[in-house]
Design goal:
Elements: H1 10-17, H2 23-34, E1 45-47, E2 51-52, E3 62-63, E4 66-70, E5 75-81, H3 88-102, E6 116-122, E7 134-141, E8 144-158, H4 172-182, H5 198-212, H6 214-242, H7 248-266, H8 273-277, H9 281-297
Parallel strand pairs: 5-6, 6-8
Antiparallel strand pairs: 1-4, 2-3, 4-5, 7-8
Helix pairs in contact: 1-5, 2-4, 5-6, 6-7, 7-9
Length: 302
């Protein structure tokens, strides 16, 4: 029987990759992405907190999906983000730079800073004019083949461009991307031959367990609904950006829908439609901005 669980949903993704017992799966995935020479392979990892707290009163709290350190000291940030906002690239760069800078504690020399590697898996096409689906970004200069430093690296993986079938899985990364894109349809006991690696098989078994455990299924459904709300919010924002010359009433309706979607995402009591309809446009605009600010403070991609 197929799992019926989408591994890109936050709850399922973290059950597969963000537990101590499944550390071998994340190690296998990281090596599949990096494709390193033998001496630089990830051998062991420690899960780190996914929250970077404020260092000053004016600082910003950041929340990422996964953050780990390997046995050589390298830091990895892994983000699964099917909903991509306008400032997505800037946010990911900020996460990487902040993680790198926060390694510099009192008494630590700059030479002791270890690489920070950010891996972003996205549903939308970040680079629609490019045919590839996996890009590795480093600090380099035109005309110079030597990187400025190897201490910051960002990988982007666009699932929307990955089109390989189960017969065309040539690499370990192909296997993982096929799993992420098709995990909902896979059967733990009947995997395609090219997908039947021990780590991927274990990942499918985790999805199977989620589908068969009432509490797990409930938490998964909550995250699935949350992502659906994010998709709706993104469509609402994109639609508003394209429209011109809207009537005031139409603008009020858009703001009311936005406030209610954000409230649901934040787990707050939904304001009544009738109550919002009685507010002037200026108040609705302020309320929507406040909700969005709280959502960003919680690390939501809005």
């Amino acid at each position: 029987m197929r799992t019926g669980i989408d591994p890109t949903v936050d709850y399922a993704f973290k059950r597969v990759f963000a537990t101590e017992e499944n550390a071998p799966l994340l190690i296998h995935f990281l090596n599949a992405v990096l494709d390193p020479e033998p001496s630089k392979r990830v051998a062991a990892i420690d899960l780190l907190t996914t929250i970077n707290d404020r260092q000053t009163a004016d600082d910003k709290v950041t929340l990422v999906d996964l953050r780990v350190r390997d046995s050589s000291g390298r830091h990895f940030i892994i983000e699964m983000q099917l909903v991509v906002t306008q400032a997505f690239r800037e946010r990911i760069l900020y996460y990487g730079c902040r993680d790198y800078a926060q390694q510099l504690q009192e008494g630590v020399d700059y030479a002791g800073l270890m690489p920070t590697i950010v891996i972003c898996i996205v549903g939308r096409k970040l680079f629609p004019t490019e045919t590839g689906h996996h890009f590795r970004f480093r600090l380099t200069a035109e005309g110079c083949r030597v990187p400025f430093t190897d201490r910051l690296e960002i990988h982007t993986i666009e699932l929307g461009k990955f089109a390989a079938t189960s017969d065309d899985l040539a690499t370990a990364l192909d296997q993982w991307l096929f799993f992420l894109k098709n995990g909902e349809e896979l059967e733990a006991g009947n995997l395609p031959e090219n997908l039947d690696a021990p780590e991927v098989r274990r990942a499918v078994e985790v999805l199977d367990m989620i589908s068969q455990t009432e509490r797990d299924r409930e938490l998964y459904e909550m995250e699935f609904k949350r992502r659906h709300d994010l998709f709706n919010l993104e469509k609402l924002i994109r639609g508003a950006g394209r429209e011109e010359g809207r009537e005031v009433g139409r603008e009020e309706g858009r703001l009311i829908e936005r406030i209610q979607l954000l409230s649901r995402l934040l787990g707050e009591t939904l304001p009544a439609t009738e109550e919002l309809e009685n507010l002037p446009l200026e108040s609705l605009t302020e309320k929507a901005a406040e909700c969005q600010s709280r959502a960003r403070e919680r690390g939501l991609p809005v």
